[in-house]
Amino acid sequence: xxxxxxxxxxxVKIMLKYALLxxxxxxxxxxxxxxxxxxxxxxxxxxxxxxxxxxxxxTLEADGLITSAVQSQDDRPDRRLFTITADGRADLQDWLDxxxxxxxxxxxxxxxxxxxxxxxxxxxxxxxxxxxxxLHRQTLQQYQGQTLxxxxx
Length: 153
Description:
mainly alpha
């Protein structure tokens, strides 16, 4: 029996919407805070530029999924804080509850190299694999060191 695998491709800006709603579901944050938290938590599998984040926040607010308020600061410029709304929580929950009916396509340079390495020098390939193993080991240590407290900071 051959199993057909469906590949899903949700537009990137829609995925950013849910990443931002997910973080805002934990706590009220500024755009800068969202970028900082994303860089220290989900960056290995989901990341965004600060300009993308602010553009998405503007859309989420226009759609009524978040609200914002300016917070005055004595020693720094004012900052805008974003809070998820009940509609935003409902939209996030609907997305979380929706089953993934396929795999998300993945582009992986290492696998492409391995695929075409039949005639390559095996010692070079082994070196590349050992380097990647060490990089993945370091990433695993980073994941193991992250906690909910990191996200809440």
